[in-house]
């Protein structure tokens, strides 16, 4: 595939992966489980935090390519998985892009960690397609999830609309050509993220194009204009002139290329408008602040120094009320590895200063050593009230003394020993093997979600080798409490993309934002999971909806699935 020299350079670079009774008028009803609340089953028996249960799930497929002997870099890091409840039965389903070795797959969640492959039965028959980075989103506001699939090496993109026939049978209709997304200027679409950047209620699309020459028209931000039509606004939004940045000297394809891997819409300066965090290879990650007028301003500072950014995770990891950013990357002698950027915007909001929103806490917290990181996520795996970090790894070559071909995933658990519940100090312990995550595969995409609806976060991994997928069941300690929250947004933004949630329980104050983003070629569902530690009751949940309305719910029992509907629904 490459010369010996380019292989060596590749190892010091590339692939990135891209990483939830008050005064509210929502549909939740605190006195009746039937009116928006599902009871959470008892947790599993104690032991290791995770158990590999893949063999018993019904998920079994091969990942690969027909021309397997001469793979390009993109084929070696592409594929991916989207997660979402496509049939509205309350269970999170999985759509998997598997290379051109066979048709792409849709696994319907049957409950109890059982899955059934149903792609063909719902009209998804996509074969001989080099795909990447799928994502679910309700693009037309009809309360069901549509599906985007990127293409690489000149293969088309797909946009599939979720529909029902006269008998109520679900099927997907190919609207790719109608949407304007089928054939973009770039040959490679890596990851996809949805979000309502202009706050018109329709979710827009941001896609990344690693490996695209600088001379190609920049088509990354697509505005949803309604009626399933998207229009490229990359130039009009001010993003086009910033996509191509000067990369580090070891950039695989040279200086004049697009190295973007994953974008995430997130309000990082707390002004209620979605900003854009862009993970990119070879030192080209960037921060863009929404100008509230349909455009973005580049606010990238010298703090953003991930050299080989791949995966992305966004959330309030220190429980201080704003959104932090984790970028998984390559760790080697000449690459600094993972980066955790802590958000300082609440300290700057009065001055309106967006120039130094983040500070780098990576090395101080021991998070940099992740080897060759790909998709990443924030989730409270042990339900102690603080977010943890998980990311997968792998590349099929070694660099110096680093054996990336035999790499393990990383699980950085928040360590609260000796700290009060409201203490924002951070400590982490790398705990993958100790927690039962023992695979050493070529991990690429991940979904961090409650597969079996028992209230804790399980992990689904898609690999780029013979062991194509792994489902780790979470066996959390039942002495800790949780809450799962689903927001029912106001159409057309039915998933409430951009809504901010603040939960108070005892001395915990937890913040979440609804994101339809990418972990890197993969996507978490929009359900939000809250670990509550020993708290058995939530004092209050506040929802700041994207259109400015506010919902308040008080005195909610823990250990249930709870729903809050927009007050105008």
Automatic annotation (TrEMBL):
Checking Gene3D superfamilies in the record gives:
Integrin alpha, N-terminal
Keywords attached to this Swiss-Prot or TrEMBL record, sorted alphabetically, are: Signal
What InterPro entries would the database entry show?
A: Crtac1, FG-GAP, Integrin_alpha_N, UnbV_ASPIC
SUPFAM superfamilies named in the record: Integrin alpha N-terminal domain
Q: What residue range is the signal peptide? A: 1-28
Limits of the ASPIC/UnbV domain: 496-562
Q: What is this protein called?
A: CRTAC1 family protein
* Species of the source: Thalassomonas actiniarum
Its organism's taxonomic lineage begins at:
Bacteria, Pseudomonadati, Pseudomonadota, Gammaproteobacteria, Alteromonadales
